[in-house]
Amino acid sequence: MNVRTRSSAIIGTLCLVASLALTTASADESAASRKAPKVALTKVTTAAHPSAGAAGPGGTVWIAERAGTVRVLNSQGLSEPVLDISKETTTDGERGLLGIAFDKKFAHFYISFTNLEGTSTIDEFAVSKGKIRPETRRTVLTQTQPYANHNGGDIKFGPDGYLYIALGDGGSGGDPHGNGQNLDTLLGKLLRIDPRGAKPYAIPSDNPFVGDPKAKDEIWAYGLRNPWRFSFDAGTGDLFIGDVGQSAWEEIDRAPASSKGGENYGWSQMEGNHPFRDGTEPANHVPPVYEYDRTGLGCSVTGGYVYRGKAIPDLRGQYVFSDYCDGTIRALQMKDGKVTGAGDLGVNGGEVISFVQGGKGELYVLDIGGSVYRIDPA
């Protein structure tokens, strides 16, 4: 079933035309002759403005709703809320409940949200027999936000067992405070912490800026504008970040599993591979593995996952992503960490706000309008 929203139905086949106009950073389009995966979007449930998700215990998928509730998707459908913090958050601007994650043993559950003052907050709950224990709640990390946009908010546990946290540059436009390149703030960064190593958390000793008096020890990578969604390849451990652009270029960044951290992705001196305004490319700039411009229908990249499921063999190893304004589900073909081709999978998920990777590697697509889809073979 190819799913089209009302807005995308209006533009019809223009989605396919626009996909041909995508600009790639290093894509070899000759590789596009590979057998294209045939996929369909199967609507599995409807949620109230779903914003994020995570694989849960017992083969479940947990879905965060932006206003502050968390529900469990299982074989019976979507549960009643298992967590409700709706009185503690707000949905103005780009705020709300923005990320959820389990540790590897499903022993602790983490939420990322903006509180009523707009402060980015990471809280932890103990989990017992697949259920949240509300009485164990504690705050792990907070970061004040100067504006209501570019909050980031995604959280994931890496293959190393540490918690990674994505924070945008603080908002407004053009990074007015220079946070992207400033190592003395957590804004515009990807952080790496050990939430169980101390209270409120410990900093891994091998973080790249540990001991640098001019940098925050929590920082793993920097030079990010709004890393709305990031993920780790379940097959290789490589890191992928979808970083939303300012006005011209959307980018996907990558770091290999062997990375020691410290990557500078360039913002706000660079937007993708291009100097931003009068910016000068930093000497240590790590260019995106892929970029596309806004001459088509896209306006805000939604990072996804490298597909490692079994249902669609032709899609395995490809990085699946979308765009909030376009909604077309796309995939990057990869080899040795480089993009060898880019393709349109021929389905549209609406206002795609996030992807979720289930416990067996299958992917779900979240439309902020309410629909939750699974990517299935056609």
Describe this structure in words.
By secondary structure, the protein is mainly beta. The chain is 3% helix and 40% strand. It contains 2 helices and 27 strands. Strands 2, 3, 4, 5 and 6 form a 5-stranded antiparallel sheet that branches. A 4-stranded antiparallel sheet has the order 1-27-26-25, with no helix packed on it. The radius of gyration is 19 Å and the shape is globular. The N and C termini lie close together (7 Å).
Terminal Cα separation, in Å?
7 Å
Q: Describe the sheet with the most strands.
A: 5 strands, antiparallel
User: What is the radius of gyration computed over CA atoms, rounded to a whole number of angstroms?
Assistant: 19 Å
- Strand content bin: 35-45%
Average pLDDT score = 91
Structural class comes to mainly beta
- List low-confidence stretches: 1-33
The number of helical segments is 2
Q: Tell me the total number of β-strands.
A: 27
Q: Level of helix content?
A: under 10%
- Overall spatial form: globular
Helix and strand succession?
HHEEEEEEEEEEEEEEEEEEEEEEEEEEE
